[in-house]
Task: structure prediction
Amino acid sequence: MRAMRCAGVRLGLLSGWAASVLASVAWAAGGPAPPVAPGPAGTDAPVPAVGRAWPVGVRPPVLRGWEPPATVYGRGHRGVDLGAPDGAPVRAAAPGRVLFAGRVAGRGVVSVELAGTGDPPLRTTYEPVRASVKKGDEVEAGEVVGTSEATESHCAAACVHWGLLRGERYLNPLLLLPPWLLHTGPSRLLPVLGVPLPA
Result:
């Protein structure tokens, strides 16, 4: 009985994961858009999972997560810090148009307005970055927009700060990524019950 219960749980988890993967693959192949991820509490519009790439690496370590401030000027962390060595390629998480590529207070910043994400549209920010794009450039998801640069920052290790805004409201950029990109554990093959082993 216990084995049957475990098998049922595994099958349920596997089918949910498979549905998520199939929806994402279908969308990438031109099918219908994947379901919209709900936005954080207090936001006016949800965040669509339009991301197709991590800004750095394949699955970079998240050194510090998103911590929304209680008030507009309150303490918090308005983005996520991703571990990235100096000189690592920094990529656009989703397709869009470069709004800004330059320096702000001595730090390199790239901001990209994301295509088809509502009014006002979502925009991502990446810093500190040596930009390889300029204002007005169209970029695809996964396209390099610059390289990370070592600066004095609030990270204990080298990092890229990834932000997301709609208008002036900061949002959690991890909501842009579909579940199959967020999966961090190792892939595991589960046994298929009732199917004989090959001879």
